Amino acid sequence: xxxxxxxxxxxxxxxxxxxxxxxxxxxxxxxxxxxxxxxxxxxxxxxxxxxxxxxxxxxxxxxxxxxxxxxxxxxxxxxxxxxxxxxxxxxxxxxxxxxxxxxxxxxxxxxxxxxxxxxxxxxxxxxxxxxxxxxxxxxxxxxxxxxxxxxxxxxxxxxxxxxxxxxxxxxxxx
Length: 174
Prior knowledge:
Number of helices: 5
Strand content: 15-25%
Largest sheet: 4 strands, mixed
Order of helices and strands: EHHEEEHEEHH
CATH topology: Collagenase (Catalytic Domain)
Strand order of the largest sheet: 1-2-4-3
Helix content: 25-40%
């Protein structure tokens, strides 16, 4: 896989994004497919979502093999790495031909995206179902809790934490 990363929010974070992208690709795709794709990751504060993936080019006019992923830089490490996992699922969907560039066909079936919220589309459900597990595996492989605040060791004992209500006690009494 050819990978480039642009406008990282912190130069020290770039290596983690690079390793996460390779890790997710190897978890999601065959070795042959991984070797045939090119991904450009750009951190972009101008996007109105956590991230997005798109097809940049095809290899012979039919198979998507170059992809752009844009990630919002104003989140913490866990959110960015989980969003990257989500977008890598979309890269796999495009590369395998499960999802078309216009987001109107899923595994050969036409979808009317104007009348269905994106959240309920099959490609988003698949990406959402895999993102947390991919992050978990990467977190364990890299011991990210030793590097970033806000990421806990899943094998550590559970500590008591309050629920963290943002409203006053009187507002909660009904």
